[in-house]
Amino acid sequence: MAGGGFHGGIHPPGSKELTSGCPIERMPFPERLIVPMSQHLGAPCTPIVAVGDHVERGQLIGHVEAVVAALVHAPAAGEVVAIGAALTPAGVRTTCVTIAVDPDQDPEAFRPTEGPLTCGGDMARAAGLVGMGGAAFPSAVKLQPPGHTAVDTIIINGCECEPFLTCDHRVMLELPERVVAGARHVRDCVAATRCVIAVEDNKPDAIEALRAVAGQDVEVVAVRTRYPQGAEKQLIFAITGRAIQPGRLPVTVGCLVHNVQTAVALVDAMEDRKPLIERVVTVSGAVGRPGNYRVAIGTSVEALLEFAGGLNADAARVIAGGPMTAQPLGVLDVPVVKGTSGIVALTAAEAAPIVGSDQACIRCGRCVEACPAMLHPYAIANYADRRLWDGCERFFASDCIECGCCSYVCPTRRPLLQLIRKAKGALITRGARS
Amino acid sequence: MSDTEPQAAPRPAKVPPGQMEPLAHGREVVAGPHIAARTTTSHIMLLVVAALAPAVVWSVVSMGLPAVIVYVSCIAGAVGTELLWNLVAKRPQTIGDGSSLLTGLLLAMTLPPMTPWWMCAVGGIAAIGLAKMLFGGLGFNLFNPALVGRAVVLLSWLGIMGELKPYAGGWLSALSLPASGKLDAISGATRLALAAADRAAGGAYHYDLAAQYKPLLLQNLQGCVGEVSALLIIAGGLFLIVMRIVDWRIPLGYVGSVAALSWAFGSDPTFNVLAGGVLLGAFFMATDYVTSPITKKGRLVFGIGCGVFNAVTRFYGPMPETTTFAILFMNGLAPLIDRMFLPKPFGWTKPAKAAKAHA
């Protein structure tokens, strides 16, 4: 059933009204950009520039031969002043190229990607495209499915089910033609027949804007507003009624899902040969000027927050992404990367309380009801707490999609997701050892 | 450029579990999700107390001081036991979650108004001490604490409990209570006992079940404190279902199977649902989270199991009031029922066949 649902899920307060009316605003280049060589899932890139080099905007600065990887380009013209390990929003140290940005440069000019690029997959690789919804999986890999698999349906994911985030909403509202064009490109890359743009029904203006330009060949489907509607497996089930087996990829049911901003970036890459060097980021919560900002990759969160009016005095927790799945930021001197969809400052009253795992489960069943993967989170967490990995395996801990619904609904505030992550990690380690 | 890492700051001596030391910019860093629903355990407990409140108030208005004494001594026994247990065991104090308050309240509602205060207190102590704290506190008990308390009181003083007369009620008559606690009353037995006697005698007493609907629904003084008005218990139960605190499957399975079996055994289904504490048990006792199954299917099985046990023992047992033991029996089976309905992950298919299956 199109526009239908999936099992479980939650309905957290959207908190989107803070920024959903804020048009995308370009943030001027900061003085300095810190560009990580690994902003994606897969092999990290190696810098191909040296300290002292001058780089153009869009020039390739990080390269790697591995297939599962995304190339890195200079987000602004300037001089390379340092190459060394620095923190990313994920809290890991990775090689970064630091660029001192040239003042007074044309913010729109860039060096197009080079080489004989024959198909969309090649162009996506040359442009360093990754999934911009947060997972940062290299897009070129998804656009070049193995020969024996057939994709008949592609879905452009405009659900944006995370609270606070509105960057995809604004992109759909302001650039509907680009989104629709991106959907067609994705469809043509994999020779699919059905082309869907899925938007949660809390964004009627975006649905209307897309339908006005979509034409006959692109379906704009309103899906139920419910977290995690934008999770890949849940969205595919809602749109096509096809359930992906645990541990398998969407391609096994003939589907391919790309985020809205990834689709737009694909249009940029294919029509303008523009690499992925900037993105729209929602800055929301306890900040002076919440809004949606077009930000150069590598801009520090500190500079972005300053541009957005600075943190309010009551901001207790700063996170990179939507509050259900975001990484917490221990330091603010980390760069915005390709997968950064938002920077949200939560007040102490909004933020989930910090508790230990000594809170006993009262077996209320809320986590079982909320789990979109149809697991029993309470049971996995109880086993994980006691380091009984066999029990975790029997309750399918590895099939958890880490959406966080269980922790959200738990009335005793047990850290269910953390415990399940612990179980998943232990099962992977154990599997690798045996 | 120097490659030396900055020295790690010395860790504070002891960080409370789950917390981290404040970082350079003075903001907390914890794993997500970073927002949480507002409902907590104590909210849930207080909502259940609120759902019981009309029935409690009405029982006090109808039965007067004896009901107050039963409520106060049960709650004091229950909450006091948890308080002392935590103090002696040097554990964090947990009475704030409201669960022992609810246990005491529910225990009181299962006792007759003339139950001596010390028996009520022992019931409260047994409910919390024996059924809950001994098992590890909230979340770890296997059996419903309030019902264990009632079972202890009932079986320890079977003679006294049998002799207790129902009480005509009212605040004025309460002032002239005889010290023994035994009273002459309008009738010596509960409606359910009368119905059972009539049935045993082959209908010789012509006990009219249909005529009992109205008093059972509105004001029944020949039963326990919590049985004064079935209507208020139903209203409270429906409130909890609407508020999504309890799953409708347990009360529906319970009440439905009691009604169906009563009809099958040739009795009046409506009377059998209204009498004998079935509604209090179905809406407020069997739905206890800790002691009932966690899956939806399991809850339906559990509710039906309670109803079947209750109805069968009511008609073919030594005494008609078996709600307590029906639920306690099924509490013991709850873990096994959960095991009947192990989860199948989303998209899971039987390894043998490739056919798609989803719920």
Secondary structure layout plus pairing:
The complex is a heterodimer of chains A (434) and B (359).
Chain A: E1 24-26, E2 32-36, E3 46-47, E4 54-55, E5 60-63, E6 72-73, E7 78-87, E8 93-101, H1 120-126, H2 139-143, E9 153-158, H3 167-174, H4 176-190, E10 194-200, H5 204-214, E11 219-223, H6 232-240, E12 255-259, H7 260-271, E13 278-285, E14 291-296, H8 301-307, E15 315-320, E16 327-328, E17 342-347, H9 366-370, H10 377-385, H11 389-394, H12 405-409, H13 416-433
Parallel strand pairs in A: 1-14, 9-10, 9-12, 10-11, 13-17
Antiparallel strand pairs in A: 2-8, 3-5, 4-7, 5-6, 7-8, 13-14, 15-16, 15-17
Helix pairs in contact in A: 3-4, 3-5, 4-5, 4-7, 10-13
Chain B: H1 41-63, H2 65-89, H3 99-109, H4 117-130, H5 145-156, H6 158-163, H7 171-174, H8 191-200, H9 213-218, H10 230-242, H11 249-264, H12 269-274, H13 278-285, H14 296-316, H15 323-340
Helix pairs in contact in B: 1-3, 1-10, 2-3, 2-4, 3-4, 3-5, 4-5, 5-15, 10-13, 11-13, 11-14, 14-15
